[in-house]
From TrEMBL:
One of its GO terms (biological process) is error-free translesion synthesis. PANTHER family: F-BOX ONLY PROTEIN 3, POLYMERASE DELTA-INTERACTING PROTEIN 2. Gene3D superfamilies: ApaG domain (2.60.40.1470). This is Protein ApaG. InterPro entries: ApaG_domain, ApaG_sf, Uncharacterised_ApaG. It comes from the Bacteria. The gene is apaG. The lineage of its organism: Bacteria, Pseudomonadati, Pseudomonadota, Gammaproteobacteria, Thiotrichales. Transmembrane segments: none annotated. Residues 2-126 form the ApaG domain.
Length: 126
């Protein structure tokens, strides 16, 4: 039986920020826009985030923090919250994955896994 109370859907869109990157100095900046949607039955608040960012060379960084972009969005069923943030890599390709910690109105904490997504500089055509 599936628990339908705590269901959060996460959608991700990434963008390479060419104007703010400097490949000659191994600096590649990527924006990511995330939409979090409560597809469950109980309202919930996002408490914290955890990210594992892996560069193309296998170097990993971990980032943990309170809320997202300075906010703790509260989502009633069917509501969504969208935000944009950024990650700097020292390689032109990498990936991110993570987890949100949520608290529902029944006082239950639960984790929302954020599946791995790719950060990649577009290939230049010659």
């Amino acid at each position: 039986m599936t628990d339908e109370s705590n269901q959060i859907r996460v959608a991700v869109k990434t963008t390479y920020l060419e104007s703010e990157s400097d490949p000659a100095r191994s600096r590649y900046l990527f924006a990511y826009t995330i939409t979090i949607e409560n597809v469950g039955l109980i309202p919930a608040r996002l408490l914290s985030r955890y990210w594992k960012i892996t560069g193309g060379d296998g170097h990993e960084q971990e980032v943990e923090g309170d809320g997202v972009v300075g906010q703790h969005p509260y989502l009633a069923p069917t509501e969504q919250f969208t935000y944009t943030s950024a990650a700097m890599l020292d390689t032109p390709v990498g990936m991110m994955q993570g987890q949100y910690t949520m608290l529902n109105d029944d006082g239950v904490r639960f984790a929302v896994d954020i599946p791995a997504f790719t950060l990649a500089m577009p290939q230049t055509l010659h």
